[in-house]
Amino acid sequence: MQNSSSKAPVEGSENTHPNLVENFSQLSAGEKPDAEKKHVKMITKSNGSTEPMSEQKIKARLECLQEGLAKEQMNLSLIINKACNYLPHGKTTATHSDLGATTQEVDQLLSETAAYLNIAHPHYGRLAARIVVTNLHKKTKSDFFETIHDLYTYVDDAGKLSRH
Q1: Among 56, 62, 57, 114, which residue's Cα sits nearest to residue 83?
Q2: At what angle do helices 55-65 and 76-85 cross, to 10 degrees?
Q3: pTM for the full model?
Q4: Contact between residue 57 and residue 116 where contact means Cβ atoms under 8 Å apart
Q5: Domain coordinates of the chain in residue numbers?
Q6: How confident is the model at residue 10 (pLDDT cuts 50, 70, 90)?
Q7: How far apart are CA 85 and CA 41, in angstroms?
Q8: Rounded to the nearest 5°, which phi and psi values hold at 101?
């Protein structure tokens, strides 16, 4: 008796789902299936513009941060996939516009995911720290004296100056 699950369905047979064949042909042509096209995750950049999330850009950034770490012991795709699963989908309705996640939220998810993987290898923890530090660098003003002035004149929620 032959196992029917080992046989691939042939196009045109009664076992073939029409969307499956269409999705497979789209994938082989390099296109995304229609179901994936509808749920593009949008990223809001620091300048306010939005763009579709690119796992290739995230991977390139993490590869740069991986310098000096045990690359062969780390799986960047695992970090990216786990973090991206928790990102919201950008959607626009007649009453509400949700632009998806910000780059800072993506960085936070990536760093948290890498920190959790520290159990597998300690360099995941170092990668997580590097992600957080680069995110802080993005938030910090480039002018040192302006930053010091802001810190010196900072007033907390209670209305007190932070200097003593």
Answers
A1: 114
A2: 130
A3: 0.63
A4: no
A5: 1-38, 55-152
A6: very low
A7: 10
A8: -90, 155
